[in-house]
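Q: Start with the shorter request: fold the first protein.
A: Done. Sequence, then structure:
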Amino acid sequence: MRWTSIAALLSLLASSAVATPLFTPEEQVALAGPIRTADKWSWKDCGEPDWPVQIESIEVSPDPPQPGKDLTVKVKASVIERIAEGAYADVEVKLGLVKILEKTFDVCEEARNANATVQCPVEVGPYLVEQTVALPKEIPRAKFKVNVNGYTEEDEEMLCLNLEIDFMKNPFPGRKLW
């Protein structure tokens, strides 16, 4: 099983949420509360309204995500405080109740490595992040929980995001089990 591929996918979702790869300014976005998007995945902005990064929406295609297919993630966010070199994100990934990844990512380094069109510093303003990644077929049929806590270069809270992704196969397509 290629756990590194799974971790890379989940890290992509996390780093997209902290405003690193492929930012393009878009018209002003409004702040919104938690949103549940589908039965197979969901997200929640667990940050405070005055934190530097505010997530408005996250969309994925296909919805729900499917192992072995390309996944496009679109994140609308507002940056309300400049993000500079030294910003980082702690990412924790759980498979059910078991922690399979706990890692700290340098936000600006991830942007450079992804050859993102916007590099640090990330200026104040609204953004739309769009990134496509190939999902490995080997993703276990399980539920993943991803917790992202982002921090500024001064170690102040920048972002909190919780994602849940359910790759469990429904034995009765088109029917809800519960």
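Q: Next, the second protein, separately.
A: Sequence, then structure:
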Amino acid sequence: RPPQGPPQGCFTCIAKPPALRQASPVLSPSSAVYLMESKSCKGDSLRPAVPCKHSVEKKTMTNPTTVIEIYPDTTEVNDYYLWSIFNFVYLNFCCLGFIALAYSLKVRDKKLLNDLNGAVEDAKTARLFNITSSALATFCIILIFIFLRYPLTDY
């Protein structure tokens, strides 16, 4: 039996189990010598080059198209998340920091749902609560330092 070289053809033809592959015709020694002499680089294979039926099918197939949906850029909507966490942990004046944090989380959810208008409105509300919480808490801290420095007993 002549030695078989690497299988030729496309992956679909090679990947079939040996029982499903078509048997290559057995060559006579004289034709095998002729095939070996006619090939310039690939002299180790004795099987004739048979065109793969799948390579013909690939030429007739159309290229599939890819559809990419482009959504509005939601990364430009600021959610004020870190500022809300800071206000919630350190400057939570009358729970305004908690409300700002809730609106910041709503902005993140609406950005994931691609609701740009709702995200912008909630971002404005979160910024308003953050500004109010920061301003009132800072004002209270300044008042505390003033009253600690100058107690009411001196008046």
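Q: Describe the second briefly.
A: The longest helix spans residues 116-149. The helical segments are 11-14, 29-38, 53-60, 81-89, 96-112, 116-149.
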